[in-house]
Write a structure and sequence with these properties.
Layout lengths: L8 H9 L9 H12 L2 H14 L3 H25 L5 H9 L2 H36 L20 H15 L6 H22 L25 H8 L7 H4 L8 H31 L17 H6 L12 H8 L3 H35 L18 H17 L2 H29 L12 H17 L3 H25 L28
Helix pairs in contact: 2-11, 3-6, 3-9, 4-9, 4-11, 4-16, 4-17, 5-6, 5-16, 6-7, 6-14, 6-15, 6-16, 6-18, 7-14, 7-15, 8-11, 8-14, 11-13, 13-14, 14-15, 16-17, 16-18
Amino acid sequence: MLFQRVKPLDKILETAEKKSLKRQLGAFQLTLLGIGAIIGTGIFVLTAEAGQKAGPAMMIAFVIAAVVCALAALAYSELAAMVPVSGSAYTYTYGVMGEALAWIVGWALVLEYAVAAGAVSVGWSGYMNGLLTSAGLELPAALKAGPMDGGAFNLLAFLIALVVTGLLVIGTSKSAKVNAILVLVKVAALTAFIVIAVPAAKDSNFHPFFPTGWGSPLGGIGVLGAAASIFFAYVGFDAVSTAAEETENPNRNIPIGLIGSLLVCTVFYLLVGYGAVGAIGAQPMFNAQGVAYHPGTPELAAACAGSDALVCSKEPLAHVLKVLGFPGWGNAIGLAAALALPSVILMMIYGQTRIFFTMSRDGLLPEFLSRVHPKFHTPHVVTLITGIFVALFAAMFPVGILADISNSGTLFAFMAVAAGVMILRVKDPHRHRPFRTPLVWVVGPLAIAGCLLLFLNLSLYTLAMFFGWAVIGLAVYALYGYRHSELARGHLAAQGGPRIDPEPPFHEGPQA
């Protein structure tokens, strides 16, 4: 079914052409934009998970994930510049490789956005619980984590997801000024951590450096397994690529913004990793057979009971500073995370609802999902459904498992986009490209190979969840989408159909 029911790019672009944007962003602005979009839950929360998978060698995992992300970003940018409309990789795939693969990519994006929103909610709850404990308002242990993580129901993660959903239903959105302030809060928090933790590093805490080795496919442990998880910490670069329409000289400035923001964030992440490992150590917890426990399992939760190890912490950066004797600064880090992370949840749920809205308008999902609220002018039905599921994910699953499942969908979508760029170079070589991927026949295959390498180094449990979700998606498409799509009925969804007014551009994509 590949290349059947391809939705013409010209039709997809009709929406974008109705409103052109002024080209005013330079390389420096794009770099700052990317830094703000990338820094999020990944570095604040997944440092502990990376330590459990790779020990001190998690610093190498940061570099591997950044390189793969950079390759994918360069491929992604060409399609994002050509098709600057909503729908992300789903829309690009629909216009290049056809409806069937577009459906699979759109279905996988549920993992990238909705499951990731759950992961961020859990990450936020870890820091918020730490703040409450410091204030003498500790919740019962059963309400601080999900059943796989030593608790029963993560109450704060559940509540924050519902609150954000309510805000999205009534149309409350962030302003550019608020976003800029939150970016400064995140960067200031990481800078304060580095200033305190790096000077406290001790050589002895880096030995052994490779306690779990490089890892093996489907194992989810080792440096490559950590890189597959840490990939979550870099997602968000599409804020740069989707700004191509507003960029001066995009062929020059887009790669500078992408590589520059990834480079700056990688340096930040390496310094944070060095400070965390060097200050208090980050050796994994092993079972009696000398095998490292998988993060997010009841076995690790039991082994961590009463432990002050970094790999056991739900607020790793704050935990490091508290162990070093800086509880005030630890609480400040926790407060920064508590203030900044809800905006990340908002953007992820927002992105998910807009993809569902686009798929519904294309006829691949039921029409009621694209209904727009008469007063708030938001897609309230799909927002409520998405938010409820996000809240339940957050209440029941650990952050590491949610992040890995999210990565599986993201990596799959990036592979499809990289393939799409190369296919379109052959199918439509003369189409105007505001940004052209440099050395596309080198970058494209390397992007696919890198994403596949990380994909195969996720745990077997994660991959089973991914393929189970894919089977469900194929069943939904066969039973509903294949028959009801606009293209199947001889229509083009770009004509008519429900509309929602676009939010003001915040230049902040799905954030990890």
